[in-house]
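Review form for a predicted model. The reviewer records the input and the model, then writes brief findings.
Reviewer: anonymous (R2)
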Amino acid sequence: MFDYESLKVLWWVLVGVLLIGFAVADGFDLGAMLLLPLVGRDDRERRVVINAIAPHWDGNQVWLITAGGALFAAWPLVYSAAFSGFYWALLLVLFALFVRPVGFDYRSKVEDKRWRQSWDWGLWVGALVPSLVFGVAFGNLLLGVPFRFDDTLRASYEGTFWQLLSPFGLLAGVVSLAMLAAHGGSWLMLRTNGVLAERARRAVIGFGLLYLVAFVGAGAWLAVGGIQGLVLGGGLDLGAAINPLAKSVQPGNPGWMANYRLYPYTAVAPLVGVLGALLAMVSAALGRPAMAFLGSALAIVGTLCTAGFALFPFVMPSSLDPASSLTVWDAVSSRTTLGIMTVAAAIFVPTILAYTLWCYWKLWGKVTPAHIDRNPHGLY
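Model under review:
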């Protein structure tokens, strides 16, 4: 159906779609928990915030699992190098995510103020850590990851956890935090009313502005801050099997801007990010929650596409040995594996999307303090 070269590009697109799906779907419940201390001022209000995402949060995390599985199957070398290099960061995310299901299930089972406040802060940390670390990880991809392959294609990582927390990496983390907080605020505008919706509205405007400043600032830093991207040279057969060392790579792509100069239409990605945030802020100011949610979702799509378009064809650049950098052409599985995965994706992804949309439709509605009072034991 597809030749090997086309399958490689197709799975670059599909992995990107899965990451965007995770950021949009799980992003609003992470963002809602980031806003938990700001929007919910007492126990009843915090229960409203939690129950506004309760029907969907666990299903949304399936996007992360699916993206990780697709990464393992489609790009095994990227999976290996990333999970080795970012081991402590990913372990930190994993333990933070452990808190979420336990916190949701146990928080309201004991009517004790300290018990519930402790779980509230746990849920906040469980949202803060993944939101920050995922942004920092994308920032470090643009800086280059300190790994290399030896002659037997064994990857070695020569950095430390603290190296990930560079100024640019932290700025990328702020972009992620602000983006998801605004997205969570727009969701709470949709699912709550009264004073809670008003606080969420103000959060969308505030965090939307922070996102714009950080996103534009990160772009300016890349363009003029001396961050050097890579250029793919010769020696690479686009239809060949895995061999990441059979290519030449040189620095010479200041700020990772080469693709935007070569393909000007890719500039639509950062434009969508900026306009999406503006749409979210203006819609929030006008009290239009559905448009605010659409705007924050577009900001997420634009942000991730901006990074993906800038890096292409690189997936995981190396700061130690440019030739070891992984690209969409040389980090993928065999043609047979990609072909089978494509058939499976064509069958199951639409099925999952249809089921997910059905769940949202059946469980739709606003959550109010009165609803909490009427169901003291039937909700989180």
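Findings: The radius of gyration is 21 Å.
Further findings: DSSP finds 15 helices and six strands in the chain.
Recommendation: see findings above.
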